[in-house]
Amino acid sequence: MAAAFGLYTHIQSNRRRSIALLLGLFFLVYVMVYAGALIAEAMMGDASLTWLLQAAWRDLIWAAPWATLAAALWIVIAYLFNQSLIDAVTGATDVTRKEQPRLYNLLENLCISRGIPMPKLKVMDDPALNAFASGLNARQYSITVTTGLLNRLNDQEVEAVLGHELTHIRNGDVRMLVIAVIIAGVIGFFAELVFRIFFQSGVRWSSGRSSSGGSSDRGKGGGGAAILIAVALIAVAWLLSTAIRFALSRRREYLADAGAVELTKNPDAMIMALRKIEGRGELDHATSAVMEMCVDNPREGFADLFATHPSIESRIKALIEFAGGHDPGPLDLPEPGDETGESQQEESTGEQGDTVNPPPKPFLPSQPPVVLGGSAPAAQPEVTGPPSGPPSGPWGPTRQ
After folding, report:
1. Which of 78, 199, 242, 359 is the most exposed, fewest CB within 10 Å of its CB?
2. Confidence of residue 400 (pLDDT cuts 50, 70, 90)
3. Is residue 71 within 8 Å of 26, Cβ to Cβ?
């Protein structure tokens, strides 16, 4: 019970921190509005820095409700169309039990075991080894798996990956991450727009013109400093929004790994799945937002500040420490066209905690053919143990 209590305590704590980070993202939206107002005031006429800062604050108070409404509208649009956009980028298609019985049954069994509604199941035709969950509500939730992952992981490992993504859905991670990506996208779009205007279009502001009414109160000479402050605020807001977005993703991966083990009761399968996915998850045509939702994102960030996922090594170390299991170390998988023989040999060894596939059924020799009109067939090997009925001949039980 202690382990389960610890897991769910971490989930609740992580959810509270995530809400705080989302509120921080909304705060950064208002920082961007203030910076935009400061730039507008500086370009409208020369004034002292103090006057411009106060004028931008008044503009922010007036514009805050409109900024909130615009952010909410943006979220509603994403709520309605985010899954369609993701499918368009990745080329994923819905699959049924008839089309993917192995994958469908594995996911269905996990959902039934915990009483979880069955999300939609999608497959993306890509040799990379990866999967991700998406959606903002129960009707949209879906799990997408690449064909490369299906071809190169065994049933236990695929089940662990499905458990990982199902945990993201259960914990509300998918909805939280999509909202964070949306808000951070708004901040990034505005930041890029401002920098393009000032550094590519060569926009200049007036330093000798003042608007009507109280030039002595306005002062002068603060336009340049106001522009620099606004640009600095925009840059800081963009960096912080990116860091917050990635921090949301990193924290959740550890809990999703633990959730997969809690669902499957098989830490070795999750460890082996991570080792096989390691360095093989790059989706060439996917955007950075899609890669953030994947089991692993091989796109590295600067000094791990902008890394969306913790390293495979740290995730496996956490699994071994808190869930047990064995680490086989980095794996050299064969090329996609040559994995049949080697992968079967690898799965049958069972070294260092690898999940072992069930051994093949023993070969049972068939009865010798009966030649009509010929001699009786050769005698069968003697079977030990008491007879279970009358002696059997080539045509069935011999009548006495």
Report:
1. 359
2. very low
3. yes
Q: For residue 68, what are its two tokens?
A: 């909130």
- The answer, yes or no, to whether residue 26 has pLDDT greater than 50, is yes
How many whole angstroms from its chain centre is CA 19? 18
For the chain, the C-alpha Rg in angstroms (whole number) is 31
Identify the pLDDT of residue 300.
63
pLDDT digits over 375-386, tens only?
444 454 444 454
Q: Could you give the CA distance from residue 310 to residue 300 in angstroms, rounded to a whole number? A: 10
Report residue 356 as tokens: 């072992």
> Crossing angle for the helix pair 155-170 and 173-199, nearest 10 degrees?
70
The catalytic residue among 41, 157, 159, 165 is 165
Q: CB–CB of 190/32 below 8 Å?
A: yes
Residue scoring higher pLDDT (349 or 113): 113
Query: Which residue(s) pair with 143 in the sheet?
Result: 121, 133
Taken in order 205, 210, 212, 213, the sign of the CA dihedral is positive
